[in-house]
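Subject: sequence -> structure tokens, single chain

Hey, anyone have a minute? Need the predicted structure for the following. Not urgent.
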Amino acid sequence: MTFPPTTTHQKPLAIALGDPAGIGPEIILDSYRRLKDQSVPFFIMGGAQCLATAEEQAEIACPVVAINDPSEAADAFVDGLPVLKALDAPYTPGAPSDEGAALALHSLAEATRCVIEGKATALVTAPVSKAGLTRVGFEYPGQTEFLAQVCGMAPDDAVMMLAGPTLRTVPLTVHVALSAVPALISIELITHKARIVAAALKRDFGCDRPRIAIAGLNPHSGEGGQFGNEEGRFIEPAIATLRDEGIEAVGPVPGDALFNPRMRKTYDAALCMYHDQALIPIKAIEFDEGVNVTLGLPIVRTSPDHGTAFDIAGSGVADSSAMVAAIKMAAACASARSDGGVHG
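Reply:
Had a minute. Here:
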């Protein structure tokens, strides 16, 4: 993936710091080191002293440059990592605190505001601790639901996609018990999410005619009703509806056949029935470059597809590849939107 040349007139990407006790500071600093000569400019919302301490302790060659406004980011990017002056907290790798969680929440809210107001072209969020955010007043199941509300959308209109170089997956149901999944599956839910996925593949990923493979729920997709009837009751009728609308949907494809190399070449995204059916393959195949993308929002939002990793924070072993991929994907999606869709 390549970038257009950086210019001082270019609007930057906004990056939310994430929990400063996790690997967020390290992977942000290292991402700047890896991308400074080829990336569109980006800035971090808050945590300047935290990042400066992390840079010193981790011995990552990445000067921190404090800025007062996002419009200064492109000029500052030449000299170092631009950090917008805002809330700060001590750098305490591996030791999460309420002060750090408050910084993470402030960074998320303010970075999102910058993108909504048009001061930045896309939002990239570093990993957060949901437990930590809850302790400081965050009332959402996750960042996706928060973003949907602040963008004035219903939670179901924001769809989580996991994307890598060779695979994109979307879970139909997300943070629910596996035993609850069959009762949640419906024709309406499948068609609603598939339409959002198809529109996003066109708008953000340059797919003229998006191909969506829809997974079965049961072994062998139910084997004609022998192992469950959700395929016949819900999934097959939903696929028929989508095809009538002109969406190239196929399936239900058995989960054990959906992700082999030959099958992956036949679709642009796989719509899976439950969390692990979507996340296990992306983490097995694309772990170092997996990106969490929120589809359906009026803004572009990406995030590395991994957590805070408190256990390795500050140890010097964190890999910034997924953060680099998230920044690249945010820039590419924002560019596609500004061009009205890239068609290849």
